[in-house]
């Protein structure tokens, strides 16, 4: 009886679950156009650091960085309205596309650069595979939520936001994301500020250091891009 019971139990056992199939890399390496924020040029340590991480993680054929005209000459000036920088940004994008024809185009930006990247992505004559926003400035200086551009997007868009970013409260971003019609995802850097930097006290209390948090963010970016490309 015991042997029969064992045979019966074995016959009804469910097969082991299979892991999900691995993501397939896109046929061509992406070209990334990476725009700086309002207060620092493309040569800043932050921009160089993120450029290197993204280049390695995505296997990009090139990560193009540039300075908006108001940054030229090394003088620090207040930026004009974002709308006035769109044409210049668009020109950089078209040059990158012409140089790397056939490669998927990713637009990425820090803060103001991410907002302008989203504006460029709404142009119909630019074929964008994905937009990556690092610290999107959802709130303007007067505190008003600036979501008009996001609601126009048709391109897969990812937000990488610090949980302590005053320019983008996560509850307001969540409300905006629900209204967006394009595919969109959010990766939160716990304890991160507008530049995704984590304070020392938070690192000590959680045991998560800056490097580990950045690596997790980069992994999320890669996963999002591959899901958007396949």
From TrEMBL:
Residues 1-26 are annotated as: Disordered. Transmembrane segments: none annotated. Residues 30-216 form the KANL3/Tex30 alpha/beta hydrolase-like domain. InterPro entries: AB_hydrolase_fold, KANL3/Tex30_Abhydrolase, NSL3/Tex30. This is KANL3/Tex30 alpha/beta hydrolase-like domain-containing protein.
């Amino acid at each position: 009886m015991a042997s029969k019971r064992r045979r019966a139990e074995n016959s009804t056992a469910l097969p082991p679950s299979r892991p999900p199939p691995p993501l397939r890399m896109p046929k061509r390496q992406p070209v990334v156009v990476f725009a700086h924020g309002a207060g620092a040029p493309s040569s800043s340590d932050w921009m160089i650091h993120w450029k290197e991480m993204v280049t390695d993680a995505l296997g990009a054929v090139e990560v193009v960085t540039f300075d908006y005209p108001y940054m030229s000459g090394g003088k620090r000036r207040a930026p004009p309205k974002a709308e006035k920088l769109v044409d210049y940004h668009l020109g950089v994008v078209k040059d990158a596309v012409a140089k790397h024809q056939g490669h998927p185009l990713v637009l990425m930006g820090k803060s103001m650069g991410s907002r302008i990247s989203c504006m460029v992505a709404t142009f119909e004559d630019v074929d964008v595979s994905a937009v990556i926003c690092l610290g999107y400035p959802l709130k303007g200086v007067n505190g008003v939520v600036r979501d008009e551009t996001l609601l126009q997007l048709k391109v897969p868009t990812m937000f990488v936001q610090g949980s302590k970013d005053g320019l983008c409260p996560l509850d307001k971003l969540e409300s905006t994301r629900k209204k967006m019609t394009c595919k969109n995802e959010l990766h939160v850097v716990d304890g991160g500020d507008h530049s995704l930097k984590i304070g020392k006290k938070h690192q000590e209390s959680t045991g998560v250091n800056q490097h580990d948090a950045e690596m997790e963010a980069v992994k999320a970016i890669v996963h999002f891009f591959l899901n958007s490309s396949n």
